[in-house]
Amino acid sequence: MSRSRIYEQDGLEPDQANPGLWPSVDENVLHKTAHTLFIQRKNAVLMYFQRESLDSIQHTTGVSPRNLRRLVQRCIQYDLDGVVLGFRGLIPQKNVKKYELDLLGQKRNKDQKTGEFNRFLEMHPDIKDLVEDLYLGRKNRSIEPVMKVKHIHKRFVDQCREKGITLSEYPLNTKWMGYKALQRYIKQIAEQNFKKAAARYGKDAFHKANRVGEEDQNQLSNLFPYQKVQFDAHRIDGFFTVDIDTPDGDPMTLTLERFWILTIIDVSNRSILGYSVSLNREYGGSDVMHCARNAIMPHKRLELTIPGLSYHPPGGFPSEKFPELEWAVWDVICLDNAKSHYAKMVQDRLTNLIGCTPNFGPVALPMRRGVIERYFKTLAENLFHRLPNTTGSGPDDPRRNNPEKNALRLNITYEHLLQLIDVMISNYNGTPHGGIYHQTPLELLEKRIQLRGLLPRRLEEEKRSEMLFMQTRINRTVRGSLLSGRKPYIQYEGVEYRSEKLTNSAHLIKHELVLHVNVDDLRTLKAFLPDGSEFGYLTACGRWSLTPHSLQTRRAINSLVQRKLIHYTTWDDPIFVYTDYLLSKENTKKSINKITQVKEVSKQKLTDEAEEQTKALEEARAQHELLDKVREEQINREKINEMDNYERLLKQFKTKMY
Questions:
Q1: d(Cα 323, Cα 650) in Å, to the nearest integer?
Q2: Which of 154, 167, 406, 510 qualifies as a cystine partner to 388, CB 3.0-4.6 A?
Q3: Model pTM?
Q4: DSSP 209-227
Q5: In its keyword annotation, does this UniProt entry include Plastid (predicted)?
Q6: Nearest one of 651, 482, 628 to 543, comparing CA atoms
Q7: Which residues of the chain have pLDDT under 70?
Q8: CA distances from 118 to 106, 123, 124, 185, 504 (A)
Q9: Residue 373 contacts residue 395 (beta carbons within 8 Å)
């Protein structure tokens, strides 16, 4: 009776018994001899599954029945990944089974130790666990954060001796006591535990191994413009100068501390929507909102003063090139986990004003925002690192050559930087990009919005205010007293705020008002009653209402006053006193940055300043001018009286001459 065919046995899976489901082999890769042998084997196996007789198969292919059954058994085996070998098992000289030491084999060479180490670990599973735990850092088997192989080998040998293994037994009877075999085994552990082994090479490698290239988020298609944007900040690689007048009126040129550029980029077409520059040592929530505001509002080009610098015609900003993108807003913004991104104002304005969803992503994984990270690399290589005042990519960068001295010698100013950045980003939007099939970002954006009609959402008309982006909301209690005659007022950040209307609203004393605060300009606050109805603008008392200043500057001044480092009278402008104090200190770059920041804020003028707000500021300014005149007249009168008294005393007590 003939033997049954292998594929007729019980327990075989469909992928084992059906050659049509087997993995294929690229036959052209095999050299000539191996290719001929593989074709013979393949034809023989296929004839076997087609129920051809064994004699016919041997006559046609030259494969004997005994060898044929061996080949079929190889084909229906599973590999380490659980996939049937299929035609891969027919490749000549291919190992399909893990090597195992055969102690009883007659052909075994006793001088060779191949397979001894694996057999030793199978006999001593506790030593195997020790090696794996030490290498992968599991179970706190060692206090070393990353243990080297030579130290693992020492623990391995110590464990062998503790188990009573003598010097005549493996592995202690070898020249290196199993060190080379341990190296090979540890390499296998690393290959089989890729994510855990990557942790040995730092947090960056660990996060990449665990997060990058997985899940469906890497396959999302961002087709619509403004569907998803990415935000990030980059410290500018260079020193720049600024011209400052001393308290005595003498001009001097000083270098700024390195500062930040913040950018928002559209993922779908790689166009830069907007940017801002922060002079702070660490950028804050207000800097984030400056960038968001600049990305949404229609962009205006700067007036260039650098000879030869110009905007390229194909470039520009989306809100500048396309009228339908003025005040356009995005749906999702991807940020990292910086503290400034979690600021209350940022969360409120992104959600309630712009109407987008913040996506913070995994911690310490910047590759999730690879588009903007790659852009910053381009910006640094094409702009900052080409300037003579560059700090390069690090202290050892050969391009770093006395950047501070070069900045002072060549007078590369902060104003120059602003012009260079604006031109560079504008031209970037008009430069072909490899990530979008060598189209320019603006070309692709034009195709999406004009040819395909994929228009983004736009900000509502009533929300199109420059002030709203920098606005936060607080509650303050109205204070005052009819008994003492103290007029109603509210206090915010150490300064009293009043208005004529509030003065005549004594019924609001001890009641809370809702205040809308523009953190870029604290001269006025907009007040609302508890029921939500508008009450009007309140103006800062004293000289606080004269010079525009930010919340950050107000807090810095209050801190210096509390520490008794500065003081100011009713007639002094606190902002001027603050800048004079910074100049009187040693000229540290940090102080120069703060002075420049104060000047930049004071130069800003809102385009949508409310008429009522303007009126309140003009009234305060007129009142201060009147007080200045009265004070000047009083001083002159005191001087005249002083001279009169002096002359009278001189006449009265004049010594007579004899």
A1: 79
A2: 406
A3: 0.74
A4: HHHTT-SGGGG----STTS
A5: no
A6: 628
A7: 1-3, 98-114, 204, 206-222, 247-249, 362-368, 586-587, 606-610, 627-628, 630-631, 653-658
A8: 20, 9, 10, 8, 92
A9: no
